[in-house]
Amino acid sequence: MAERPEDLNLPNAVITRIIKEALPDGVNISKEARSAISRAASVFVLYATSWPECPFSFSANNFAMKGKRKTLNASDVLSAMEEMEFQRFVTPLKEALEAYRREQKGKKEASEQKKKDKDKKTDAEEQDKGRDDDNDEDEERLEEEEQNEEEEVDN
Q1: 76 with 63: CB under 8 angstroms?
Q2: Measuring CA to CA, which residue among 82, 80, 56 is closest to residue 67?
Q3: Which of 27, 92, 110, 148 is close enough to 23 for a disulfide, judged by CB 3.0 to 4.6 Å?
Q4: What is the pLDDT of residues 81-124, one digit of tens each?
Q5: How many CB atoms lie within 10 A of CB 47?
Q6: pLDDT tens-digit readout, 36-83
Q7: How far apart are CA 5 and CA 76, in angstroms?
Q8: Is-contact 74 51, C-beta < 8 A?
Q9: What torsion do the CA atoms of 136, 142, 148, 150 make, to the nearest 10 degrees?
């Protein structure tokens, strides 16, 4: 666990970004309110994910332990949300999770395509270089042949 209570807080930059995205344009929030929201979010995350020693706890960690896993996954969190009677958040969370997965898949595909394009470009450059080398060799051969012909003509 964390050594200090502050270690359990979510990063201020993340909290600020979430708040700004949730509020209408032109609405400001005080530093104290941002801090309170940050602490509340941290407590909620701990509540939803921890306390496996409590026998009546429906934390995501308990669902992972029942599945004989040490890693929490999205279904553990969603199950915990339902058991904690936060059903109204489950559908928006599932939608956000699907959107996140689509975004990650798109980024992965774009990265793979970029790598393929780079590999194709490298291959094309190597082929061009090979052609240039072949052309250089052909030119050298032609020059040698011309020199040989000139020498034969001189003789």
Answers
A1: yes
A2: 80
A3: 27
A4: 888 888 899 999 999 999 999 999 999 999 998 888 888 777 77
A5: 13
A6: 998 888 888 888 887 555 555 567 888 888 889 888 888 888 888 888
A7: 25
A8: no
A9: -120
